[in-house]
Amino acid sequence: MQKTSTPTTTNAWLCLLAVGFLVLLAACGSAPSTTGTGTTPTAAPTATPTPTAAPTATPTANPTPTPTPTTASSSGNSVSIKNFSFTPNSLTVKVGTKVTWTNHDSVTHTVTANQGAFNSPVLPGSSFSFTFTKAGTYAYHCMIHPYMMATIVVH
Fold it and tell me: For the purposes of burial, counting CB atoms within 10 Å of the CB of 40, is it exposed (0-12), middle (13-18) or buried (19 or more)?
């Protein structure tokens, strides 16, 4: 003898099947698992640099001195590279002054003149020096971290 199902029975089975499918689908959702400490790691906030107009260099020709990387601070004025910034942000010196940049961060930075007067990588714990032989405003930055910007004014 063959059993026949009524529309009510068929509807009940379809509803039960649909609910089971939805439960299974919900279990495969995108909720984070809570293994380990039960906390979800988040990215550390970073400072958003405020873009400023970079001063242009006054000299029209590139200065002729060759930059000299060094391992220790030398005479003249100095710029500290620390916490992903140049300090001081603006330095005024006389023509003929040697400026030394010293990297106190644990990562490599560059000291790169916007107009090409000087360019050097500065490894962690090392220094880079450049002697300014022409008056002008020398805007510079770190090519690796372009939000790091500063200026040397030479009188």
Answer: exposed
41 occurs within a structural domain = no
CATH code at 135? 2.60.40.420
CB 151 within 8 A of CB 138: yes
The domain total for the chain is 1
pLDDT tens figures, 18-62: 666 555 555 555 444 444 444 444 444 444 444 445 544 444 444
Q: Is 91 left (phi over 0), alpha (psi -120 to 50) or beta?
A: beta
- Residue 110 is part of which domain span? 72-154
> Is residue 2 in a domain?
no
H helix or E strand, kind and range, residue 140: strand 136-141
Look at residue 63 and tell me if it is in a domain. Answer: no
Does residue 49 lie in a domain region?
A: no
Q: Which residues of 41-60 are buried (b: 16+ CB within 10 A; e: fewer)?
A: eeeeeeeeeeeeeeeebebe
Q: Is the pTM of this model over 0.70?
A: no
Q: What tokens were used for 4?
A: 């026949």
- Report which DSSP code applies to 6: -
- Give the type of residue at 34: T
For the CA atoms of the chain, what is the radius of gyration? Answer: 32
